[in-house]
Structure formats: C-alpha cells, structure tokens
Amino acid sequence: MSELATRLSAVREGIADAATAAGRDVAGITTVVVTKFQPVSLIRELASLGVRDVGENRHQEAQAKARELADLGLTWHFVGQLQSKKARQVREYASVIHSVDRTSLVDALRSEESTVDCFVQVNLTDDPGRGGVAEEALEPLVQHVLDTPGLRLLGLMAVAPLDEPARPAFARVRAMSERVRRLAPGASALSMGMSHDYRDAILEGATHLRIGTAITGNRPTPG
Ligand SMILES: *Cc1c(COP(=O)(O)O)cnc(C)c1O
43: domain range? Predict the structure, then answer.
C-alpha cells in the first residue's frame, strides 16, 4: 500500500471507531478530503482509492483543479473564506459551499437558474478574521439564506478554536444547530472536524468531516 492509502485507511478506521463510540451509523458521515496545496496527481490517487468528495479553500486553485480533473466526476466542496466577487465562479464547479458567513455573500450567490448546497459558517472565536458569522447574528443570516433563491441550506459549519478543547466548542455548534432547525427543519447537517479533532466532532454529531493532512500528509508550502 502507498503511504497515502495507509493514511486514508487509518483515518477511515478512526472514523468508524468514533461512529461506533457515538452509537451512530458511519454511513451518515461524509468525509471531505481537503486537498489544498496538493498536486492533482494526489487527487487522482485519492479518487482511485474511492474518495469522492474533495475540498479546497482558494478559488483559483480549486477552479483549475476541478477543470483538470473533470473526468473523475468528483464532488467539489469549497471550504475557505470566499470573496463575494468570486462567488458566481465558485458556483460553477462547487457542489457544496461550506463558508457562507455574511449577507453580501448570500446576495452574490443568488441564482434563479440553479441551486447550490451550502453551510452557514459560525465563528467560535472573538476574532472576525477567522471567518464565520458571530453567534448573535446567526438567525438573521440563516433567514436570509432561506429567502434567497439558488441556495439550499444543509446546516452549520465551524472550525474549532485553537485555544480551547474542541469537544465543548463542537457542542456549542450542535446547540446552535437546534436554533437553526426552528427556522429550517431540514438544515440538520454539521460540517465540523478536521485532522486533529474529527473524533470529537463525530461525538457531537458531525455529518461532514473536512480532513486534510491526516490523509494527505503534510501540505507542500504554498507557492
Ligand atoms: C485546511 C482546512 C481543513 C483541513 O485541515 P487539516 O488540519 O489539514 O485536516 C479543514 N477545514 C478548512 C476550512 C480548512 O481550511
């Protein structure tokens, strides 16, 4: 087995273990392999190992990779901060946008022609630079997504803060998700959990994991 195959199967086992510990069906958990800064050759190898969902966080890189790998029929997830002026272009290749975090971005994603799946990203820190809507502004933003044609709200996305344990942070997202479901009963998905905290995320109900380096190995330095 290649190193990539070995790491992928180790993570798959870790996910299955955590699902068992949580009393959950692993089939309800989608693993998005985050391939930012990685070459397309690595994404091809991932596809040959059965990976169907890949995530990228920079528009230009994502667009180029999605074009070059169109033959693989992968599902592309956009997980990074998104500038409103790039929003329409991201819609063209991404099936899921995980980082909807402000009204102006929702407006830029509006479409009468097609629908894209999205998550509203919540900021679990006090630092606005980390992306995500502040908890106080959650409901109005969710309502705006629901009122905007061309967006289907799947649920909430979050990144665990660096300076506190992940599990209670994910529990807060789970509680926010209950608030969201009063407005949008179907929006029950939770995009949370990365290489170092996916177990905690699964224990708190994550349905979409975004895992990079635990599967891909270290990222090459951005050029
Ligand atoms: C890079 C990234 C990930 C994956 O991070 P790892 O620590 O490599 O697993 C997940 N989510 C987002 C938003 C990212 O930018």
Answer: 3-216
pLDDT of 223 > 80? The answer is no
The CA distance from 37 to 209, in Å, is: 19
Q: What residues flank ligand 1, with Cβ below 6 Å? A: 34, 36, 57, 79-80, 159, 194-195, 210-214
What number does the ligand 1 atom closest to the CA of 195 have? Answer: 9
Q: How many CB atoms lie within 10 A of CB 216?
A: 24
* Rounded mean pLDDT, 166-176: 98
Q: What is the number of structural domains in the chain?
A: 1
Q: What's the CATH code of the domain at 207? A: 3.20.20.10
40 CB-near residues (< 8 Å, 6+ apart) = 65, 68, 69
Distance 211 CA to ligand 1 centre (A): 6
Share of the chain above pLDDT 70, in %: 99
pLDDT digits (tens, 9 = 90+) for 33-69: 999 999 999 999 999 999 999 999 999 999 999 999 9
Which among 210, 211, 213 is the best mutation to test ligand 1's pocket, defined by most ligand atoms within 8 Å of the CB? 210
pTM: 0.97
**223 belongs to a structural domain:** no
CA distance 75 to 127: 31
| Nearest CA, atom 13, ligand 1 | 79
Let me know if residue 222 belongs to a domain: no
**Ligand 1 mean position, distance from CA 34 (Å):** 6
Cβ atoms 87, 75 nearer than 8 A: no
The verdict on residue 180 lying in a domain is yes
Whether residue 161 lies inside any domain: the answer is yes
pLDDT for the residue 123: 98
